[in-house]
């Protein structure tokens, strides 16, 4: 297909397809029936300093200091980290390690704030006409607002935009294919205008001419709202994609809308595409127009164990316990699980004291029958159901055997790192093998080996460099001695020339005297 | 609240191995009923013996391997192996035939290789081949279809033949297999082979009463019944079309080509399709996922290879039917098929 014909197809609204995929129960109606509610202020917040993929910023506040809502708590610093901001006004009570929302339940540096209840805002200024502002300044504003991809990956948005490469399309992702979650759905229904304003700013920043807004066909209300708002944004067109998990995955959505594939280990920008989530677009508009940093986001709180499921504007740094209390959750069964994220890609929380962060899109509290806990893993019967649903066209069962055998070379050969961990394979597995878990583990092990190798390589280089330095220093020392000796000789010669006594002559004279004495002695003895 | 860490996804489709296996043996029911209708109650006794042996062998192996026995019984894989083997052997074969075959299939072919999911060879077919090579007489002594037999064996008569070798009236298996003309009759495929070897033409060979309308009295209906069950499995997405499609195509195409050139000297494609173990093999035996190729393309090649091998064995080999050998040979080819049929992963193809 020629590139032009291809572009024409995209332009015509052709929807391609991607291989595999599954249709799990969507269960969106649990949470998408009511408008996004606002959480009341809590009395304390826990803000992890690192909430995105990349380095943390440098802490610029101290314990005891009073901070205002929206005030930066960290700044980019030399590491170019993404700043985090105070969710409300109050006093900083502690800075130190605290449990964060991470699958392993690990700890990281957190800033604890005791709220004063005044919710006093930090002075902020918006820009009315962003086209008048230099690109660099706009990008800096996006970074300073602490915006990271809200779709899940948490990659700093300004960094993604900074790559200046030709772009055919900016894709605004409102697919939200993960079951249960309706945060983007509600946001599109209620804030279509703001989302598209942000999208327009993104288009400007990316130097792109055209944009596509993608929504899954199970969200008719969101589609209607966005379609209406799109009338004012002629550069964007709407694309409704069929409901299938994981159509909202970056690579899959690109395949759906353009028929292109992101090259392995490459980026969408390599094929002229850039993708941003609707929540990110909303945050961009807020940051640019109002000067508001990213201090709150929409979180879906859902599951049959919650009495008031729905979507909430949650300040980033609110503890999960606080959010759950508001949504009407009481500890019922000792077996109750709290999942951060959706049923397909979310992770169970180690406890509810962990804070909501920028990439938290959902808190899921399933009833016991709703999502039954995993059964005992049974042996793989190679049925191949996993390969049929894999959107990356991998052979999950082969990967599983290789991962269990720790055959890392085989895993690389089977393209383990192209796995997007969507969980479709494990979802259909009749033997309930936690496939994704094995892949994650194998990936971590391979990365570890690579790191160890790099470390060893580093050590070897350092050792060799030291050897060379010692060698060089020895050479230099010898050279110095040689030069010094030469200089001494020269000085002596000059002294002689100048008529002075040559110290060397005195030595010679002494030797001659000693010889003469010896000779005289000998002669005397002979006589 | 439980704070044990569970790996995502937290949502599972509830189709367990047990359910998959249940579908497989449910889909076998039409074929089994047809077998009983044409070949008598012996099939039921063979099934009973096979299932008991399989369960006992499975339990013994699990105990020796220090694994929970119920865990193994629950997945129903041994049950399916037992059923497949029981319906593959002649219905009135002596009881020790099926016991030895099933025990071999479960103990040696399955558990020695590491149990369910680890075996290289299809257990039922490996068991079948061991029996065929070790006990060729018993394994080729198919009873006549009841419709042309002079004997009417009841349920207990069949048991008597299986356990003692004689009916209560004192007839032995050889006598039971005799047609009205006083000649022992082999299966349609076997008769054709013998006839062709004796330089008879196909039309002459087909005069014998064992060839009903198309492909052998009884056998054509048995095959159609297994085809029906196989279509149910396809519909339920228990199996994909690649293996049965490949199998049937791999058999049909060469059979049709040879038949077009020499219709009087070769077995017709219809006969190939509806005779022997064709449909059972295509939909229920070759589709055993454990011992088949991995990718869909690989499975198509795997099926084609089996079909073609069946044609080769039936036409030039030493046995009248060749499904078991073909499946085992293709099992051996699986690693190489897998190596060359790895699909192109997302992002690894050519870019527009």
UniProtKB/TrEMBL annotation, chain A:
Residues annotated to bind [4Fe-4S] cluster 2? 390, 419, 422, 425
Broad class of where this protein is predominantly found: membrane
Residues forming the 4Fe-4S ferredoxin-type domain are: 371-400, 410-439
Q: Which GO terms describe its molecular function?
A: 4 iron, 4 sulfur cluster binding; electron transfer activity; metal ion binding
Q: Where does [4Fe-4S] cluster 1 bind?
A: 380, 383, 386, 429
Entry EC number(s)? 7.-.-.-
Keyword Transmembrane among record annotations: no
Q: How does it assemble?
A: The complex is composed of six subunits: RnfA, RnfB, RnfC, RnfD, RnfE and RnfG.
Under HAMAP family, the record lists: RsxC_RnfC (MF_00461)
Q: Which family does the UniProt entry place this protein in? A: Belongs to the 4Fe4S bacterial-type ferredoxin family. RnfC subfamily.
Name the chain's protein.
Ion-translocating oxidoreductase complex subunit C
UniProtKB/TrEMBL annotation, chain B:
State one Pfam family annotation: NQR2_RnfD_RnfE
Its topology with respect to the membrane? Multi-pass membrane protein
| Transmembrane segment boundaries | 20-39, 71-89, 125-144, 217-234, 241-261, 267-286, 298-317
InterPro entries given for it? NqrB/RnfD, RnfD_bac
Protein's UniProt keywords contain Cytoplasm: no
Cellular component annotations (GO), alphabetically ordered: plasma membrane
Name the cofactor(s) required for activity, per the record.
Answer: FMN
- What EC number is given for this enzyme? 7.-.-.-
Any single biological process term in GO: transmembrane transport
Principal subcellular localization: membrane
Entry's localization field = Cell inner membrane
Highest taxon of source: Bacteria
Going by the UniProt record, its keywords in alphabetical order are: Cell inner membrane, Cell membrane, Electron transport, Flavoprotein, FMN, Membrane, Phosphoprotein, Translocase, Transmembrane, Transmembrane helix, Transport
- Modified residue FMN phosphoryl threonine is at which positions? 187
**Job of this protein:** Part of a membrane-bound complex that couples electron transfer with translocation of ions across the membrane.
Q: Which family does it belong to?
A: Belongs to the NqrB/RnfD family.
Provide the assembly information.
The complex is composed of six subunits: RnfA, RnfB, RnfC, RnfD, RnfE and RnfG.
Name listed for the protein in its UniProt record? Ion-translocating oxidoreductase complex subunit D
**Can you name the source organism?**
Pseudidiomarina insulisalsae
UniProt lineage: Bacteria, Pseudomonadati, Pseudomonadota, Gammaproteobacteria, Alteromonadales
Q: Which gene encodes it?
A: rnfD
